[in-house]
Write a structure and sequence with these properties.
globular; mainly beta; 240 residues
Length: 240
Amino acid sequence: MSEIALNWANTLEIDVTPTGDNPTWAQIHEGFSNVAESLNEVLYQASYLGDSGWGSTEVTGGQYIITLTGKRVFGNTAQDWIFSDSTVYEFGNSRKTTLRLTRQNGDIIQWDITLANITNSGGDANTAADISVAIHGNGAPTFISGGLLSILAVVSVAGSVTGDTAVYINPLITASHSYKYRTGTSVDLPQYDDVLTTGWTAWDGSDEITAITGQKIVVAEILTADNKAKKAGITTVTTA
């Protein structure tokens, strides 16, 4: 049977630690009562000599935009970050993070965003404070299929041998899973079900790892049978 789309059945999440090693997802729900999505399309419209006066339109670009309005709720993690002084009164990278939208039918969209036109008060004296924020997508979104990557807590401490690091993971590994890792000055989390072969090194979960202090290490938990990523986390390397 067909199912009507309901706005409340969609899940919006925002990363409230965009400068951290791992994302911290906070749900955008409390206080927000209206959501409006648009593609802000760029149109090229023209009429040519052979068109007998009729015109045509090409969609040549666009930008994904969500506008949220509602009431201010203190204590909600997403609202407290969006409407914090360090976000509202700063510009540039302070307004940038990542947004994830899970639709009612299970489709997942994730993209880099900029927060714009933040308004954190307004309205009559005897009503709740009005708020609004526009979420502007930066570039094309990523369409995620299959599921969401779970985040591992990864800790790196000095190892027993110069140049080595001891790495600890939480939670403990799942049966039929194993670990792989990679290091570098800049490393990214894999997507869920990415096949981790080239550029990844197998790890038994206990041996110390040779690495460079100050670089990043990403550890992924994979399904051993097919090397597909299920969980992952990033931290900064500390060596002896």
